[in-house]
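Title: Request for sanity check on UMF1 family MFS transporter prediction

Description:
We are preparing a figure and want to confirm that the structure record we downloaded matches what your pipeline produces today. Could someone re-run it with the sequence below and paste the raw structure tokens into this thread? We only need the token string, no images.
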Amino acid sequence: MTTQSAPPPTREDYASTAAYQRSWYWYDWANSAFVTTTATVLFGPYLTAVATEAACPDLPEGATCTNDLSVMGLPVDPGSLHPYTVALSTFIGAILLIFVGAIADRTKRPARLLGLFAGIGAVAASLMYFVQGTNWALGVVLLTIASISLGASLVVYDALLVRITHPDDRDKVSSRGWALGYLGGGLLLAVNFLMLSNEDAFGGTANAVRISMLMAGLWWGLFTLIPVLGMWQLRGVERPVVASRAGVVGGSLRQLADTFRHLVTLKQTLLFLVAYMFFNDGIQTVIGQSSLYGTAELGFPETTMLTLFLMVQFVAFGGALLFGRVARRYGAWRSVLVGLGMWVLVIVAAYFVPERATGALFALGVGIGLVLGGTQALSRSLYSQLVPRDREAEFFSLYQALERGTSWFGAVIFGVVHQVTDSYRPAIVALVVFFLLGGALLSRVDMRRGIREAGNEMPAVV
């Protein structure tokens, strides 16, 4: 049995949450250090090196490892271990995250739950310092825990955007959060770049990488205190509850079933999620495998890739703000569609970048930076308009399950194509299909109809 939901909040109600918004921004700053330094730049090549050492001990410099690892009795190419690890963590996350939303919407103090998930992830990220030698298995376990924890924390974080921001302001607030995240991630990456440029002072490249990953984990944990403490008093809202006497676990399962039944009735929300499943799969795979592509396929050293990603972070800072401004005039829906078209051009260009062509690589980085922040920030705010009021965490758990949990398919495709062709070029260009399918489906989403179906206030610009 459900209860009557509260009246829609007024403009004045949202105005009182300005302080919460200022605290909310900082979680993008906090977790982006791990996403940028560890998950995107350093851990892929580092785990591949550790796995290669385990499969081919004492391999001469410049030689190719022809041995496979044995992973639960299955042969795995060391070069494909990282993509497969990403696939494993995101697949498990797809199952777990949909339960997180049901639990989060039954939590009276959502900021505390945000802190719990972020804390677990930050500890796992910090422990990556101990991945060394041939201990690739520890790296697989820690990356899986950190990735799932990150996704769980973002379910709570994204849901809070709806509770503290008026529909007319969500593109702006979401874009500012992403921009601050790129700025924070870029600052730590700059420090890590200096460390790797002076690797001898840290006992070699491997030690510099391990210390950088430790710093990213500590950064994530410490800066999470700002949004957690700043939103500590923010309470959950009164919303429809299914089987309120069933307890947290049982009630959450029943609430989850009710969420899926509700989603089926929201045709435009469902269509958006399917579109997002495809184009986000492409984005996440490009982000996750780009460092490996640059080092293993294009032959650039890690210091060059760090310089590239450092540049991308600051370009993305401006790109997120730029797309936010464009969305205020033309709408987030049109802006995201343009961004997806730009992604296709970027991937095709990546296929043709010559080996060790530094100028072409950095030109490609500018293109990635411009489109990266905008498509991610506006997808979040666009979806927030299609989420039923008072059930934000439940529906954002589906969003995060798709963001973190379906990119396993892109990672698997990337790894399989590499294993079959022994080249990352066809693997990267294979990702174009995800953007084409996602864009085609998104173009069919009727945003005005979807906003009405969800019972939300129509923003001034759609």
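Thanks, this matches our download. The radius of gyration is 21 Å.
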